[in-house]
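Example record

The entry below shows one chain as it appears in the dataset: sequence first, then structure tokens.
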Amino acid sequence: MKLLEIARKSIQFALDGKVFEPDESTKKKFSEKRACFVTLMLNGNLRGCIGSLTPRQELWKDVIENSINAAFNDPRFYKLTKEEFEKIKIEISILSEPREIGYSDLEDLKNKIRGRGVILSYGSHTATYLPQVWEQIKKPEDFLSSLCLKAGLSKDFWKNHNVKIRIYDVEKIKE
């Protein structure tokens, strides 16, 4: 069994009010603690995306939990319906361990984040974008401004404050 099958079966079982449990060989195959995001797309549009930034459980468990949360608990969307389930495409992003970066100036920062997953933090404010977001937001300035807004900060906050920046890469698996 592959990770995409785990994700799809988890959502399908949840729609039927059941809990999916993979077989022992699948659990063993994906037993390493890894963080992942599960993204659901419907007709080319985002339909849910939930994940974890740091490894806290076996990958198979993270896929199940994030699949169900993307389908039913993403606050930006209503719960996925059975009709939509038939049409969604699933993407799993397995994250590398995030690492904090230092930067000498804004130009250095922009060069270091381009094409990477980025976690922006300041105090209790935190937000992330997967590397795939660079496909929609191509300019680093716009990327960082959007990330600040997502974190509940002003859009230019990254320019004037000492925000903590961590970057990561992903291994993408998609239907």
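Notes for this example: The helical segments are 3-15, 24-29, 59-72, 82-85, 106-113, 140-150, 157-160. The longest strand covers residues 35-42.
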